[in-house]
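The protein record now logged underneath.
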Amino acid sequence: MACRLADSVFLFKGSYENPVQNGKNVAHCSPGICNLKGNKLVWKGFRQQRHLQCKKKTTLIQAVAVPVAPSPADAENGKQLSDAEYRKQLSERYGFRHIGEPISENVTLRDVIDSLPKQVFDIDDVKAWKTVLISVTSYALGLFMISKAPWYLLPLAWAWTGTAVTGFFVVGHDCAHKSFSKNKLVEDIVGTLAFLPLIYPYEPWRFKHDRHHAKTNMLSEDTAWEPLPKEEFDNFDSSPLWRKAIIYGYGPFRPWMSIGHWLIWHFNLKKFRPSEVKRVKISLACVFTFMAIGWPLIIYKTGIIGWIKFWLMPWLGYHFWMSTFTMVHHTAPHIPFKASEEWNAVQAQLNGTVHCDYPQWIEILCHDINVHIPHHISPRIPSYNLRAAHKSLQENWGRYLNEATWNWRLMKTIMTVCHVYNKEQNYVSFDQLTPEESHPIAFLKKVMPEYA
C-alpha cells in the first residue's frame, strides 16, 4: 500500500523484504516520521498526530522523508515505483550513489561495532608515522611549487598545498581520538604541532569534536554543522545585515564557513567546562606563540605578499576542504537532525553519516578522512584502517549506508536546499522562506552545474 502527503512529500511503503529481528512487530523509521506498533501506524513530526488503522499486521514499515521529491506515482506510464526504485530516484536527484534504508529499532550501535574485524582498531606506529611523512613531504613540495610557480600556476600550487596541510589536520584528528599512538603524551604533542600551521588550538578543538561524535546530528547539541533553526532565522528580522550574512554564509560562502566556526568555538574560554580550561589555555598559548614567531618570520623573509602566498592562500584552501568535508559528511535533504528525546545513536552514526569518494590524490593527502562512516561508528579506528572497516560495513550493513562520489549536483543540493530546519521536511531552503532576500541562492541555482 502507499499513501502520500503532498505538502510534506512523504512516502509510505508496505511490507519490507527483511523481517524484524527477534520477531518483534516494531519498526522505527530513521527520518523520525512514523512508528508501527501493533497494528497502528503512528505519524510523528506533525503538529497533530494522525493514526491509521492497518487492515493487517505488517512486519516492517519503510519510509523516506524528503523536502522535495516526485511521487512514486509520477513515474513514466503511471508505473508504481518500488521502495528501492524510489530511493534510487532520490539518489540521482541529490547526487548520491546510494541512499540507505532506515534502520529498524532493534539494531544498536554496539551491534555494528561488534561486527567490525578486531584488527581495524589496531594502532600501527609505522603506518601512523607514514601519514606524518606524507603530510610533511607533500606540504614541503607545495611550498616549493609556490616559490617557483609563475603567477598563472599559483592557484594550482595553492590547491595542492591547501590539500596537503589538510593532511596535518587529519593527523591531529587521529591524535585527538587516541588512534595515533599508544603513548598519549606523544599524541598530544604531535596533535598540537600538526594543528599549529592551521592556527587551530588542539585541545579546544578536541573537546568540541568529542561532543560532535557524542551528539552527531542532534539539534542544538552537535558542535559541527546543523540546520539553522527557523526561530533563530526569524530572530534576524530586526537585523537585516545579519540575516543577509546568514544567507550568504549558508549559501555561496559555505565552503569557507569553517572559518567562522573556528573563530566562534575555539578561542572563547566561556564555552568550555572548568575542568577543560587549563588545557585550553595551554593550546591557545601554543597557537599565539606560533603566530607571534611564525608570521613575522614569514613577513621578514618574503614580505606581506609572501605571507599571503605561502600561508594565507593555502590556509584558505584548507578551510575549503574543512568546510566541504564536514558538510558533505552529515548534510543531505533525506538525513534528519533530531531533538535529544528522539535521537538514536545508530541512526545518526551509521545512517546519518555520508561516505564520499574524492579524487585519489585528495584521498591520499587527506588520509582517507572521507571514509567517514566507520569513523563515526568508532572514532578509535585509525585513519589507515578506515577502508578495511568500511568494506566490512558494506558487507554487513550495506543497505543502510549513504554513499556518494563527489559531484556538482551533490554540492548544489546542499548549498541551495539544506538551510533551515523543519521537522516535517528536515530542511527548508531560504528561497522558500524569504524569496525576496534569497538572491544568492537563486544565483547558485543558476550558475552551479548539475553534473553528477
In short: Residues 274-330 form the longest helix (57 residues). The CA atoms of residues 2 and 437 lie 38 Å apart. The chain has 17 helices and eleven strands.
